[in-house]
């Protein structure tokens, strides 16, 4: 058997799109085809996450973050384009599924209320032959300890734990499958700020101890600010900016990103004053033509209304999808040095 070299990325997508609605088989069967709009949840996503990287994926509700996470975890097929996880297709090779585990926002919903914690954590490793019947109790205790839980409580039910502890149970359950890649979908969003910090610290510890790769989905830039190596911003199914975290916060390029940062008070002090994003995100069933962001963009010009901007490198490692970066198209902005 050939083994892939360690440098194979944890995630690699090319021109990845996912539509819901009319193109969906179920809608056709239910004769809803004419009434149901097509939703372009993902539209041409090119993203590579090297093994071991912690990527924060940020965007407003409906921008397609969860859809991307679910495709990476093999829970959803793409409509077009390619996706590879550790060099394998999640659709064609089910062995990928163990390597990627999803941790959701609401552990209450993702844990079976009638299942004791020991069973919730131990069930999958038994099925996959990771631990035998004689080993499983000690194996479960080890996962609980690693997630910061006292194994003495393993015969309790999820409702007997606090919200933060329940999220630790979800994490222990994910770790029990020995994943290499965690997709965390708003995993701290429902927790109090102090508990959020504890769970974020746990993710960092796990990363250090287990060499994990993370796709950390959040609608809140503040959450990813201190933990992500790289920040990727999505808007209506497209990536608009992708940069190493330090560069991202120091030199945000896309007007949408700048608007998001303008809403974070402690960052606002340090930076030139950007205009906060105005208005609502349009429906992904009827995205604006050209640059999807143009109706809300303070710097939009004619070209933005008709032509999709390419996501391209403005400096090595920093990609942005904005026509203002085209010096020929936006001489004024280039002259003021706003394009870093
Ligand atoms: N199974 C589905 N059927 C139909 N539409 C869907 C489905 N899943 C997602 N969508 C739609 O696709 C778009 C993107 O959804 P997605 O959940 O990926 O966005 P998100 O950025 O994660 O938003 P949120 O933070 O609200 O979850 C939304 O308009 C959503 O309604």
From TrEMBL:
Keyword terms of this UniProt record: ATP-binding, Nucleotide-binding, Transport
Domain of life from the UniProt record: Bacteria
Molecular function via GO: ATP binding
Protein name (Swiss-Prot/TrEMBL): Peptide/nickel transport system ATP-binding protein
Keyword Iron-sulfur on entry: no
InterPro entries: AAA+_ATPase, ABC_transp_ATP-bind, ABC_transporter-like_ATP-bd, ABC_transporter-like_CS, Oligopep_ABC_C, P-loop_NTPase
SMART domains reported for this sequence: AAA
Coiled-coil boundaries: none
Pfam families tied to this protein: ABC_tran (PF00005), oligo_HPY (PF08352)
PROSITE patterns: ABC_TRANSPORTER_1, ABC_TRANSPORTER_2
Gene3D superfamilies for this protein: P-loop containing nucleotide triphosphate hydrolases (3.40.50.300)
Membrane disposition: Peripheral membrane protein
Subcellular location: Cell inner membrane
Species: Bosea robiniae
Upper classification of the organism: Bacteria, Pseudomonadati, Pseudomonadota, Alphaproteobacteria, Hyphomicrobiales
Domain ABC transporter, first and last residues per copy: 11-261
Family in the record: Belongs to the ABC transporter superfamily.
Main location class: membrane
Family annotation (PANTHER family): D,D-DIPEPTIDE TRANSPORT ATP-BINDING PROTEIN DDPF-RELATED, TRANSPORT ATP-BINDING PROTEIN
């Amino acid at each position: 058997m050939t083994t892939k070299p360690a440098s194979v990325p944890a995630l690699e997508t090319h021109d990845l799109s996912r539509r819901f609605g009319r193109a969906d088989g179920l809608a056709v069967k239910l004769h809803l085809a004419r009434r149901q709009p097509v939703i372009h949840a993902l539209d041409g996503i090119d993203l590579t996450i090297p093994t071991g990287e912690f990527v924060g994926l940020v965007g407003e509700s409906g921008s397609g973050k969860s859809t991307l996470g679910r495709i990476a975890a093999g829970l959803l097929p793409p409509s077009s384009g390619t996706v590879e996880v550790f060099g394998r297709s999640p659709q064609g090779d089910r062995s990928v599924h163990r390597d990627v585990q999803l941790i959701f926002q609401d552990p209450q919903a993702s844990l079976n209320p009638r299942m004791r914690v020991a069973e919730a954590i131990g069930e999958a490793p038994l099925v996959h032959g990771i631990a035998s019947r004689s080993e499983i109790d000690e194996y479960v205790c080890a996962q609980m300890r690693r997630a910061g839980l006292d194994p003495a409580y393993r015969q309790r039910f999820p409702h007997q734990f606090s919200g933060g502890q329940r999220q630790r149970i979800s994490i222990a359950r994910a770790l029990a499958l020995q994943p290499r890649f965690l997709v965390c979908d708003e995993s701290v969003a429902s927790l109090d700020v102090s508990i959020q910090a504890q769970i974020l610290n746990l993710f960092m510890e796990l990363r250090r101890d287990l060499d994990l790769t993370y796709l950390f989905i959040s609608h809140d830039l503040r959450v990813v600010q201190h933990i992500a190596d790289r920040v990727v911003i999505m808007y209506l199914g497209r990536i608009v900016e992708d940069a190493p975290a330090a560069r991202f916060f120091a030199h945000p390029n896309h007007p949408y990103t700048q608007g998001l940062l303008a809403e974070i008070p402690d960052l606002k002090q340090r930076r030139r004053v950007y205009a906060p994003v105005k208005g609502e995100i349009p429906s992904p069933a009827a995205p604006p033509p050209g640059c999807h962001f143009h109706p809300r963009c303070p710097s939009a010009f004619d070209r933005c209304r008709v032509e999709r901007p390419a996501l391209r490198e403005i400096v090595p490692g920093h990609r942005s999808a904005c026509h203002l970066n085209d010096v020929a198209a936006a001489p004024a902005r280039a002259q003021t040095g706003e394009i870093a």
